[in-house]
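JOB MANIFEST
job_type = single_chain_structure
chain_count = 1
residues = 149
[input]
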Amino acid sequence: MASSRYPLDAVASARRAARTRAEGELAGALRALARSEQTRAEAAERLAEHAAAAPAAEPERPVLHASGLELQRAAAYAHRQASTARALRAALEREDEAVTQAQAEVRRAQAALAAAHGQEQLIERDRERFLQAQRRAAERAEQDEQEGG
């Protein structure tokens, strides 16, 4: 008895392709997460460097008589420092959000891969049952031939 072809070969091939795509998507999501975490770490480092480089709020020696120009310069400097700090904090918050989104994408890709793997395993188990049934049928046919012959 000639063995017949597994009727779901096309489905099995499609499921393998889906799993391969899901693996690629997960790898891409993991790379994006790593880049996002690196960018976030760099933003946190820039903010920490800015905070460390800022002078103390109180001068080391008090100035009794400061000119108007000195006060203007000090105020402008303080304004620039505060503005830069706000911008760096905002950048860090954006990077935190990007990391959170990248983590969510990794979780989605992991779930998609698990589903694709499960679907592929389902077809493989069905293929094994099909092949086993064919072997049993071939063995029965051979026994019937031997007994009848």
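[summary]
The chain has a mean pLDDT of 90.
The first helix runs from residue 9 to 53.
exit_status = 0
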